[in-house]
Input
Amino acid sequence: MGQVRGASGMRSRLRVTAIASLTPLEELDDDPFLVDSRSQHAMCARWAADHGYVIARELLVRGLRPDHCALWDGVRPGLDLFVAPSRRVLESALSSVEEFTDECARRGVRIETVGRAEPCYDAQMKASVHRRLSMPTAGYDGR
Output
């Protein structure tokens, strides 16, 4: 598990927040990865596991202001980090990636992108995403 030293010298766990884009189902054909928030979060979780971390929070947002309290609630300098699948996801999730990056630097919080290739979606994968997102109250789990 990823750990860092706090100001007191005691070791504490690094809290990782995954950021995914909330993109309407209507955009599935044009941009399936941005619609498929489950795959975005899974990509972040794999990155975290590869680095010895665990995702503590998952955010699903679109055009969120960089200073919004949903981003910063409980965030501690040096003890938290944000991860997103790519800059492209951040551009959809946040109103300004540059302002968010500046805010992270100001607050002493890391921001990382996974940097892996996005999955290629065929018709079957798109249909699975469509079913999962169009029937969330029916208990369908996407399998």
The chain is about 35% helix and 20% strand. The CA atoms of residues 27 and 50 lie 31 Å apart.
